[in-house]
Amino acid sequence: MSALSLAKILLVSSCVFFQTVVMGQTVNINCGPNGCNSALPDQTAYNYVAKISSFGNCSTGDFCKFKWEVTNGTITQTNSSTYEGDGYIAIDVKWHNVNGNGIIKVTTAKPASTDDKCETCPVGLTVTKTIPIKYLGTPGNIKINGVAYTGSHQFSCGTAPITVSVTPATNATNYAWTCPAGWVKSGSGASITLTPTKNTGGTIKVVASRGDVLNLETVSQLTITRPLPTKPVINSGDILLCNPKTITASAINASSYNWVTTGGITANSGNTNTAQITGVSSGTVKVSATSAVCGVTSAFSNTINVKRSAPLAAALLVTENGGGSPDFMCNGSGVSLHAETAEPGTIFSSWVSSDPANTILNFNGGSAYFNSYVNSCYGVTVVASNCFGSVQKGITICVDNCIKPTPTPDIYPNPASDYIDIALDERDSVEIPERIKIVSEVGSRELKSVNVVTDGMLRLNVSDLPRGVYQVLFIYRNIESKNARIVLE
Question: Does the record's keyword annotation contain Signal (predicted)?
Answer without folding.
Answer: yes
